[in-house]
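Q: Could you fold this chain for me?
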Amino acid sequence: MTQPTQRPKPARRSTHRSTHTTARHHWRRDLVELAALFCAVAVADAIAKLVVRGPRGPVMLIASAVALLLTAAFHTWWARRHSHAPPPEPTAPSDTAVPAAPSGSTSLWRMRTTVRDEPGSLAALCTALATLGVDILTLQTHPLAEGGTVDEFLLRTPQELPSAEVTRAVAGAGGHHTWMERADAHDLVDTPTRVLGLATRTALDAAELPLALRQLLGRCTIHSLPATTLSGRPNAAADAPVEGVLEATVMRLRDPSGGAITVERPHLPFTPTEFARARALVELDARLGPRVPRSQDVLTLPEGNEITVRRADSADHRAALAMHERCSPRTLSLRYHGPVSDADRYLTHLLSPRFGRTLAATTASGQLVALGHLLWDGDETEVALLIEDEWQRRGIGSELLRRLIAMAVEAGCDSVYAVTQASNTGMVAAMRALGLPLDYLIEEGTLVITARLDATPVRSRLPYELPR
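A: Sure. Below is the predicted structure, expressed as structure tokens.
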């Protein structure tokens, strides 16, 4: 790490010489003033004797006294105004000065590099970074099975320092396969605290596992593969051993709810340490079993009816099938973009917490009348709504959509997209009502609306939100 920057100090010999010279200067000045005082007294005595013997002796004597008083007062004022300031601090020689750290703003970077597993390799790396004025905030070491270690740093660098110069210095110190990306204030949390927080979130909600893995492993793509296809056949791609598989930039883990979880990170291989952490999170999820927060909110619609909004999961499968039967073919086709007969097959996937979060709206009698989905789609996030025909145009869809967007913001998503038909004016109006920047893409009658979440998050009109 860099040392605290100190103000350059003069050499010891120069300071001693300056102090000695200043003392001799004050002593010489006192001698001169004392001699001047004796001369002034002698001159005054001679003048006094001359004046007293003259015709106007007393008057001249008084005038001389007044002149002496005025001269003394002027000398006092002049001495105070031009007091002897201490001599300026001598400048240190250029070879002894400590260079000051670059002023201005700084940048946060995450850096990962591979070094030899031998004494002094990490010290050489830290010295090279300190030479550039780079401050090491955190450091993690990942041992490799074939020898060597992967060191992961959180760095604070001067704003004007290019990342290429940092990587060149690291290469010169023995690092290779160096990778850097921008970091933010969230990365300042130490690793044990961050891992414990991710474990807590996973324990509270089964839908958190994919998000926890993504935050644990950095920028990566996560796919949850179901054990069976929509046609009910076994999914060969979802076959993963209990202990998981690590293959350079890809790891495959067995999903406790069935199927497999595939994590991919191009150009940056996973380390055995990261693989062990990911397996620990999956094992925690398996031991706790299915779980979804059971909090709920009660909404009063403009006509006076009350609607309850809560999280939904696989336990709502039968109620969702019943709602499908009450929906018209047009409503189902606007939602699923395919044959209406296949709509029921999607429910197992949509209601699973592993693939996202689902909100359900139920009436006072407990009947399910609307579903809102926030689906993890690799690096992207999809939102979708299904409102029973009788309950459309009452504000239920807009309320569910606002809550889903708030969940996406909380999950750290950069954007969400909705796939619908250009004739679905209700969905278009609900997306526009969010007040977020929107992008539209139309292909063969299918409309894709993407909302960018870098704007102010959309909050519900309720005083509090449903838990994730």
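A (continued): The chain is about 35% helix and 25% strand.
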